[in-house]
Amino acid sequence: MSTATRLFVRNVWLQALVMALCALLVSQLIWTAAPATFHAIEWAPYDTWIRLRPHPAPDPHLLLVTRDPAGDHQFGAGQWDRSLAATLITALHDAGATAIGIDIPLDLPSPPNLGGAVSDALLIEAAKSAGTVAYPAVLAPAIDQEGPSPMMPPQHLVPGKSTLQPVLDLDRVVRRGLLYHGSGSSELPSLGLSLAAGVWQVPLERIERRSGSIRLPHAQIGGGATGDVTIPVDRQGRLLLNFTGPQSLAPIPSATILDIFRLIEQKDNDRLVALVNGKAVLLTTQPRPQPERTVPSGEDTTDMLLQAQLLHTLLTQDWIRELTPWQRGVLAFVLSVGVAWAAFRWTDWRGILLGSGLLLVYLAVAVISLALLRLVLPFVMPVTAALLLLVAGSLLGQIVATRRLVLLEQDMLSVQQQLVAVREALIYQETAVESLEEDLESARTSMSHSASKAAESATLAADLQRMLAEAQAQEEATRQRMDALEGQLHNLRAATISAAPLRNIEQEQLRRECEQSGIVTNDPAMLTMFRDLKKGARSPVTVLITGEAGTGKELCARAVHRLSPRAAKPFVAVNMAAISPELFESELFGHVRGSFTGAHADRKGYFELAHLGTIFLDEIGDLRLDHQSKLLRVLQDRTFYRVGATSPTTVDVRIVAATNKDLQRGVSEGWFREDLYFRLKGLVLHLPPLRERTADIPLLAEVCLREAAQKSHQPPMPLSGEALEALTTQSWKGNVRELRQCLEQAVALAEGALITASDLRLPGTSTSVADTPTAAALLPDSAGDLAVLNQLRRNRFDMQATARALGWDRSTVTQRLKGLCFQALVESAGDQAKAASALAGAPSLLRTVELKLMDYRAHLMDTIAPFADVEEALVDCKRRFKNLPERHFRFVETLVRRHFESQA
Ligand SMILES: Nc1ncnc2c1ncn2[C@@H]1O[C@H](COP(=O)(O)OP(=O)(O)OP(=O)(O)O)[C@@H](O)[C@H]1O
What we know:
Helices cover 56% and strands 11% of the residues. The chain has 35 helices and 26 strands. It has six domains: 3-45 and 323-402, no CATH class; 57-142 and 152-317, no CATH class; 403-497; 504-688, 3-Layer(aba) Sandwich (Rossmann fold), CATH 3.40.50.300; 696-760, Orthogonal Bundle (Helicase, Ruva Protein, domain 3); 775-903, no CATH class. Helix 2 crosses helix 13, helix 15 runs antiparallel to helix 16 (454-497) and helix 25 packs across helix 27. The protein is of the alpha/beta class. The longest helix has 70 residues, at 380-449. The chain is elongated and about 150 Å long. Bound molecules: adenosine-5'-triphosphate. Adenosine-5'-triphosphate binds next to helix 19 and helix 27.
């Protein structure tokens, strides 16, 4: 696995960042596939808000003068003579209108039948003398398409030249007003902006345009006040319209052309002034095909009315703002990272709940910001990305969890390999320290014996002293490194177990299912293990169960069988440690009659007995290497030869294996075949020791007491509080088995109706008969070699740990082991491998013992090398190995004599 993948699998924040980016990318792609639809969804909150909110009052300086059917009836339904507009403009100006916008494109000539050039001249003259009059110009492309040539060039009208064109969003809804259309010399302000500039008395050429805003300096903003007006626009110069109402016309003060004409005809100047004075007037004279555009509220409207909305938005200065594309992107990214982090940090319901919560909070913030701050936040991208992440979260979470498990296992392997190297280094260093101590002792002795060599020996002793100090420091450093690695390994193991957390809702269900298989537990790690067991049982995968003795490995193996489709077929349990090495093949694979002495008939082996069912290979870690290779072949193709048979036998069996040894360590240390290990670890189930799940102890105790009572046909005996306390604080090296035995014994021994703490006979309690007399039996002077050896084995031949356990000093333990090694070498006739195997007791300790043996033997050979005579060599050995118990020195003597004999 590459470093990048490792980093990704380990770091939730990195996963969140990468996945958030991917989700945003996918959201963008989805958006690109259906842009109009997504645009409509993006603006749905804004559109809804526009529709439902209480609408702002229109600016009082705004007046709409429109055509209506009565006007059409009076002046005709089609286009009107432009002299009519000229009359209106002059009258409105005279009545005090601050700016007038008309919808007649003055760039195009009037048709001859409607007054022609004369009417055009009248209108232009009226416009010229009416102050700010803005009219829609035909933009260059429109002129090309529509044919009629514009009046060239009406220079005097240029300041009022504007455009009516609205901006359509992708979903063909108008939400924004574009303040400038076109570019370069053909650029035109929109009619609304021209009129607003007229009201504020800011010449168009003084308007400043910046990125993100348009500024009108020294504007007369009403009440005689002057100030700058800054209009917030997006990158394309668009301003979000703050619509006055759902009915675009309804709230804006308006009058009809006929009303105005009547006032003119009646010369009712007062009413005209009252209606028009100080206002920007939008004059609609053109017959318009209705409807033209759609607004967010869903209704249709005209371009002139849209300009009125723009003018209203500008005059009220009540802006609705948008974020820049960058700001939108960053916001969506931040939200997505948050949701992704929640979804990957907890791959169960908690992740979904937290992620959804974040999304809901964001939506609430978006609504509040629109309603209170008038700020439109992005909608589609963050929501799509967040939903994608929530869906993908649990899926990817599972994948990442699996990869993380693989990584943890790889790391464990590497730590174990380092540990092996460090252990070996420690053995060398330990032996070096021991040899130096002996050399130093010897140098001191010779110093006191020979005065002539005193100075020489003193220098040698000083050198040795220094070397010893260095070696001891080195040994101490290695020990610390080993402790650190052991700690690391422990943490990795714990992480491996907790890598796939259990959902709360499954817990009760699993507990009940466990009980049906005879497994009493309420421990999350055990229940998680059982969940995996259940899944694995259905498939034919090979199962490896690990855990200390008595933790329930066989119970679990039986559960695998019971929950598998082979449940009705045989379950055959084989204890690999209990099979005698000579009978290994015959027991497992069977034999044919006459194949060896005593084979009186054909006999099926365990594999054949388990045909179509399950074979449980217990204590697989205690298998010798040569037997491991034999087993490997069967596991590979389920085919073997019965002892003495000439044709192979093929079986259909499901393999479940168990061990309390660390097989991965075995692979690193070379006592377990790697290929066999990988064959076995299809599904690994680890059972935690009882001391790591003390909450199970009362449960187990209750079940054990109930069963004991059933056996003795008596009512169950309850435990006293003190007894329960004692049970839970016990370390239970033998785990559930030991607990069960302890309780069975207590039931038998209890005298009252209650089991008390003393009935339990736990080590440490005053009446205990189970106290191990090890300390007494293992005094240095006693000949309890076997007990010392057992203690060494228990401490993996670590001298320091063994010395601590026995309460001795380290050199005493070293001398004992050295003596035992020499004894084993003599008894195995010099066969180092055999001697090591006899001392190690278990394959997992073989390598350590071999190294010790090699060193001790080499040291002995080095000691006697300078001597030609066996007796002289023995005298030196006597001095050198003076701390060796006499019974062990006999073996040194034998080895030395054998060596000299072989040299002769
Ligand atoms: N969770 C449990 N609930 C009830 N009984 C249990 C549980 N775990 C173990 N036991 C009991 O403890 C005893 C030992 O269990 P088992 O033989 O399955 O352990 P093991 O791990 O295979 O031991 P070993 O490694 O020594 O073979 C059995 O009597 C078993 O019923």
